[in-house]
Amino acid sequence: MGGLDAGPTTTVVVRPPLAGPGAPQRLRSVPYVRPLAHLKHVGSFGQVYYLRRVRAEGFDEALLVGPGGEVAEGAITNVGFVEGDTVVWPDAPALDGIAMLVLRRELDRAGVAWRRQPVRLDEVGRFERAFVCNSMGVAAVSQIDEVRFPVDGGLVDEVMRLHGGGVGCDLTGLVRVRRVVGQSAHGRRRRVSRQAGRS
Q: Is the distance from CB of 78 to CB of 134 less than 8 angstroms?
């Protein structure tokens, strides 16, 4: 066995895919934005706390909202909105999740327009539909706080179809790899690769 000089170890766990969301999701907004939101990290107390709190209130997901009312992301999802024939992703501090990155690529391939723009909580009612996505799939959003959305038809159905076509595909170019250079226990420099992206 390696000891202190062995270097980084990679562990891979293989299991069957999780079942996707079976029903439209109800979101409750909460006043929280993850620190260093563009990175996937273990500092998840805030998002777990709010997710548990909104689930205790009967909601499915917490919608993280910044101090100026800007919609950022879900506690464990990315959120998208539909405006006409365009998908709108909130332009706020958030993790670019793998499911969202796959969807963006598949939207491009299908010729479906998408853009990032600031989305304020008090403006979500102007969108026609909404959805969330993560490694478990894509689900329509039926409600954000008191605002209700239709859950069938429209561009959300196309987003779900495109996500299904992109799953299991080549993810090359979708994940940003960051090199972190640190010191080992013996003072020698070591390199560790970290991936940024919500799965």
A: yes
Contacts of residue 130, defined as CB under 8 A and 6 or more positions apart, other chains included, come to 79, 80, 81, 82, 124, 140, 141, 144, 149, 156
Residue-wise burial string across 51-71, b where 16 or more C-beta atoms lie within 10 A, e elsewhere: beebeeeebbbbbbbbeeebb
> Rounded to the nearest 5 degrees, what angle is found at the Cα of 112, between the Cα atoms of 66 and 22?
65
- pLDDT bracket for residue 161 (50, 70, 90): confident
Q: What is the pTM of this model?
A: 0.75
Contacts of 63 (CB under 8 A, 6+ apart): 27, 28, 29, 30, 71, 73, 74, 79, 121, 144
CA angle 79–115–151, rounded 5-degree value: 40
Distance (Å, rounded) from C-alpha 28 to C-alpha 9? 39
Residues 24, 152: Cα–Cα separation, whole Å: 9
Measured CA to CA in angstroms, residue 75 lies from 46, 67, 106, 108 at distances of 9, 16, 24, 26
- How far apart CA 92 and CA 40 sit, in angstroms, is 16
| Cα dihedral 136→162→102→68 (10° resolution) | -80
Instruction: Give the mean model confidence (pLDDT) for residues 133-157.
Output: 92
Distance CA 122, CA 127 (A): 11
CA pair distance 164, 173, nearest whole angstrom: 19
Token digits for 146?
Answer: 């008191």
Q: Which H or E run contains 161?
A: helix 154-166
